[in-house]
User: What shape does this take?
Amino acid sequence: MNKEDINENKEDDILEEEIKQIFKKSKNNYGSRKIKKELEKKG
Assistant: This one.
């Protein structure tokens, strides 16, 4: 594994955690479109 792979894995982990938080805040109600909009709001 090189540095780029490690950084990409960390970014994936962060994104996954953000998605889980958004989904949990929506009381497990948001679908992929709403989650995507919430992520776009965060930047």
